[in-house]
Amino acid sequence: MEVDKKEEIASETSSEQVVNPWEVSAKDGGRIDYDKLIDQFGCQRLDESLIARVERLTSRKAHVFLRRGVFFAHRDFNEVLDAYEGGDKFYLYTGRGPSSEALHLGHLIPFMFTKYLQEAFKVPLVIQLTDDEKCMWKNLSVEESQRLARENAKDIIACGFDVTKTFIFSDFDYVGGAFYKNMVKVAKCVTLNKAMGIFGFSGEDHIGKLSFPPVQAVPSFPSSFPHLFPGMDMLRCLIPCAIDQDPYFRMTRDVAPRLGYSKPALIESTFFPALQAKNGKMSASDPNSAIYVTDTAKDIKNKINRYAFSGGQDSIEKHREIGANLEVDIPVKYLSFFLEDDAELEHIKKEYGEGRMLTGEVKKRLTEVLTEMVERHRMARAAVTDQMVDAFMAVRPLPNMFE
Amino acid sequence: MGFSKDQLLSQLQELEIDYSKYEHPPVLTVEEQAKYVSSSEGALSKNLFFKDKKHRYYIISAMVDTKVDMKVLSQRLGLGKGGIRMAPEEALAELLQVSLGCVTPFAVVNESARDVSLLLDQKFKNQTRCIFHPLSNNVSISLSTSGLDKFLQSVGRDPVYVDLEANPVVGKDQPPDLAVYVPFNSVVIPELPNNTPSAQASPPKNVSAEKTKPVASPKPSKSPGNVKSVVQNSGLSVFKNPEKFVEEILDKTSELLFSEVKGENVEALAETLRKRLTSEFTHLAVMYKNTAYSEGFYAGTQCQPKRP
C-alpha cells in the first residue's frame, strides 16, 4: 500500500524538479508538476467525492482551499473520515520552522486550513515550532531561534486557534520525557543509509541534522503528549502540511507499525507561488516575492502592481482579442487561493480570460482581498500578548478538546 | 423519494377532487407565476416555509396580498418575538422534497413532512378557487378549498385555516392563539451547504416576492443525525463555543430587527447580515475567548495556596 517509488532526492540539476523540505524548484525553470509529484511520492489525489464527504460529515461548506484544489493530495484521509464517522476522533498536528520573524501569506496557508479543520471536526491540535531545526540549519543561536519561535507563535495564534483545544510547543522547551522516548524508538528504526536516502544527508553534514528527523516524526504519536492524550494510544493523527514535508512523514508512516502505533494521515497542499512567478515557492529571503503580514496597504498595492506576474497581453488591443493567459497569471492564481466567492472568481476568470477585463482590474480586486486579510491578521496579532503565548504553550490538559 | 407531481395529480383524480391544471415554464416567484396564470382562474397564493429555534417547521400558505408579519406570527405561536425565520434551503429539500420556489400545501403528502405544521389563510375560504404548485414549479393547479381540504384529510391532516392578519394581544392572561399548532416534534436535518455553490443563482432581486427564500448561511455545530445533542442544547455551550455564541448574538439582533423595522425585506436583510457577519464575529469571539483564558491562566500561576 505504501508506494515509496523514489525515496532518493532527485539530482540537483534543473533537468528534474526538486521537492524536499529544504529545496523546492521546478524543472527547467517551469512550473511544479504536481501530478508527477503525487506519482513520485506515492500519495493520493484529493477528489470531489472526498470533499463532498467532508461537507457531509462537518455539516458545513468545505474550506475554500479544498474547493480550489490548494490542498490536493492526501494519505489515508479516507480512513480518518471512516473512523470519524464511526465516532472515533483524531487530533491535528502541524508545525512551523521559525526561521524568520517575517511571515508571508504562504506561511499562513497551512494554519488557515488547520484552523478550519479544528472548527469543522471539533478536534484538538498540536503545533510544533522546530526552533532546534532552524538553529542547526540556519546557524542561528539557540536564544535567537527560541525568540523567533515565540514571535512566530503570535502570528500563528492570530490565525484564530482556540486555546482550549490547542497546544503549541517549541522543541527546545518540550523535548524530553515521553516525547524523547518516542524519538529514540523511531531513531532505532531508521538506518543511516535510509536517512541519507530520504533526506539527502552526506558525510559533510553535522550529526545534529542527522538526528533531527525523529523530532518532527513523533508528534504524530499521541503517546508523545501524555498530558493531552493519556491512555489514548490508538488516537489517529491527521497532518495538514505543504507537500514538501512529505519525506518526514513517509519515514514516520514506515516506522509507525513497527512501534505498534497508527500511521499518521496527511493532507497536503501545493506551494503558494511567488509574486514574480519564478519557479518554486515564495521565499522569505526575497521581500518582493511575497506579501508579508506586516505589509501596509500601500506596500501590498505596490507589490501587486509592480511585481505580480501578469498573464495579460502586451497591448490592450491584443488583450481584448486573445484574452489573458490564466495559466501563468499570478493575480488570478492568488485570487483562487483567497477569494471566497466561487461565483465571483468564475466571473473574473471568464472576463479576464476572454479579454474583456484588464489586468489592472484584476490586480485591484486582489489588492482589496489581500489588504482585508492582512488587516484582519494584524488586528488579531496585536491582541496576542505574551501571557497568551504562555497559555498556549503551557503543558496543561485540554479537558474539552473534543467538544 | 418524494411524491412527484404526477403521483399527486393522479391522487387528486382518484379522490375525485376537481382541479384545473396550467403548465408553464418554471417559475420562482409569484410575479412570474402571475404572468402565466391569470387571476380569473383563481387566487394566487404565496407559500412560506419557516422554522423556529427548536427546529420545528411551518408552511404558511396565504393570499398574495395578505400581510404576513413574522414577528406577530412568532408571538401568536408562543415563540416570542423573532422566534421564527425562513427555513434554509436544505430543509426544503429534506423535509418538503420540493425545489426552490415550490413551497406548497401539497408538500405535506410526503412522509418526511409529517412534523411540519401547515397553516392556511382564512381568506382562501372566500375564493371559489385557489392556485398552488402541485409539487413542481412548472405547473400550477387551481382548486376549491373544499377540494384542498378533502386532499389534506386523505393524508391524515386536519386543514387549519387562520386569520393571518390578526394581531391579538399576547400576554399573561391571553395565551398565544396559535400555540396549539406548534409541532410536537422537532426535526433534525443534517444542515448541508448548497450542493451547487456556483451554479446557484443568487436570490432573485425581487425580494418582495415572498415566495422565494434567501439563501441561508450554513449553520455550524450540528452533528448529523444526532437528535439528542440538538434538543438538549445546554445553555452552557453558548459561552464555551464561539460559533454558538455568535449564533446567539445574531439571533438576538434579528429579533430586534424584526421588531423595529417594518416591511417585507426584513427577513432577507436579516439573512444577509447573518451570512456576512458570522465568520467575522466568530473570529472576534475566538480572540475574546483566548484572551479571557490567558488572563485566567496567568492569574492561576500567581495564585497563592489556600491558607491552612
From TrEMBL, chain A:
**Which EC numbers does the record give?**
6.1.1.2
Q: Which GO terms describe its biological process?
A: post-embryonic development; reproductive structure development; tryptophanyl-tRNA aminoacylation
The highest taxon in the source lineage is Eukaryota
Q: List localization entries.
A: Cytoplasm
Keyword check for Protein biosynthesis: yes
Question: Is Nucleotide-binding given among the entry's keywords?
Answer: yes
Return the Pfam families for the record: tRNA-synt_1b
Q: Which GO molecular function, any one, fits this protein according to its record?
A: tryptophan-tRNA ligase activity
List cellular component terms (GO).
Answer: cytoplasm
Arranged from A to Z, the UniProt key words for this protein are:
Aminoacyl-tRNA synthetase, ATP-binding, Cytoplasm, Ligase, Nucleotide-binding, Protein biosynthesis
User: Hey, which family's this protein in?
Assistant: Belongs to the class-I aminoacyl-tRNA synthetase family.
Q: What is this protein called?
A: Tryptophan--tRNA ligase, cytoplasmic
Organism listed in the record = Brassica carinata (Ethiopian mustard)
UniProtKB/TrEMBL annotation, chain B:
Compositionally biased, Polar residues: which spans? 195-205
Q: Which SUPFAM superfamilies match?
A: YbaK/ProRS associated domain
The residues covered by the YbaK/aminoacyl-tRNA synthetase-associated domain are 24-151
Q: Which family does the similarity line name? A: Belongs to the PRORSD1 family.
Q: Where is the composition biased (Low complexity)?
A: 214-224
| Positions of region (Disordered) | 195-228
Q: Which InterPro entries match?
A: ProX/PRXD1, YbaK/aa-tRNA-synt-asso_dom_sf, YbaK/aa-tRNA-synth-assoc-dom
Which Gene3D superfamilies does the UniProt record give? YbaK/aminoacyl-tRNA synthetase-associated domain (3.90.960.10)
**Mind telling me what this protein is named?**
YbaK/aminoacyl-tRNA synthetase-associated domain-containing protein
List the signal peptide residues: none
Family annotation (Pfam families): tRNA_edit
Q: Name one GO molecular function term.
A: aminoacyl-tRNA deacylase activity
